[in-house]
């Protein structure tokens, strides 16, 4: 395929969407494309030098005449500048608003026929889509993009349902870089964290927003810890942290729960874990479940959004009803008390990721979309 010049815009510090956008940029660069990140700060996973990855910072000035800093306009101007100067072939933006709308404006400002690909990650639809003051803008961003992708079938259907967009939406699942996410030898961490030989390790990773239902994770763990010796690793930070620490205190579980805060090198933590809990009330995909599965960790997830498209009930983990703490706790006990079941689920998790969510497979699908659009002219 012809080597392309691709502009990528995402919220660089926001969880999964920023991770996927950055990983995609890195993979495309490895395949020889020239990548231009256009964002407000350096994407946090861009932690290595690539000769063909460029970063263009969006500077948002605060003027006293404006009540709010004009991020969207500053971004559109920067996009237009980069489209013209670097002669970009296409812009791949993550989130319909504001990024697709900014890309459409930038295309008009630049006067060049740059193609626009928009990837929907969920928050733009499952949260913002229900704000009627934004629905028309989201629909506009989707319909005026040249191609639109969603990270799960569930998100695709929800977008049609909520936004009523008249546009084909293709499902391209999230992926992981299997060179990073695989089981590694990090057993020393068990000892360093004070995890005893006979204890199982349960992990939860999120940005602790209320939609992640971290209190449910603590309650389900409390249920299982009555039967199975275990420690809970809580990784991440966010608005719910205060409630969660209080709940842990109230349940007298301080000695069983480790608050690790935000962490890099998650594969090392997954590699000492026996089970992941992802009990969200909204989740268009659940990238952390995929990362854990790639390291051989079975997951229990809620029957919400795209989670059942990632976790296969009874094969790579269990799917439970949202908020059903007893059911979740019991399923966790079943799994953690049966080492053969755990081994099978772990094996099937790794296989599932390799077959369906490996980077090469999904990055090729994105490239095919780019190629198609540029051929269409
Ligand atoms: O989950 C979050 O709070 C972050 C959010 C985001 O916009 O980055 O994640 C969304 O995109 C991820 C990557 O596609 C998905 O794995 C997450 O499921 C999705 N989050 C929600 O739908 C709540």
From TrEMBL:
Residues 187-346 form the Glycosyl transferase family domain. One of its GO terms (molecular function) is glycosyltransferase activity. Residues 14-177 form the Glycosyltransferase subfamily 4-like N-terminal domain. Pfam families: Glyco_transf_4, Glycos_transf_1. InterPro entries: Glyco_trans_1, Glyco_trans_4-like_N, Glycosyltransferase_grp1, Thiol_BshA. GO terms for biological process: bacillithiol biosynthetic process. NCBIfam families: thiol_BshA. This is N-acetyl-alpha-D-glucosaminyl L-malate synthase BshA. The lineage of its organism: Bacteria, Bacillati, Bacillota, Bacilli, Bacillales.
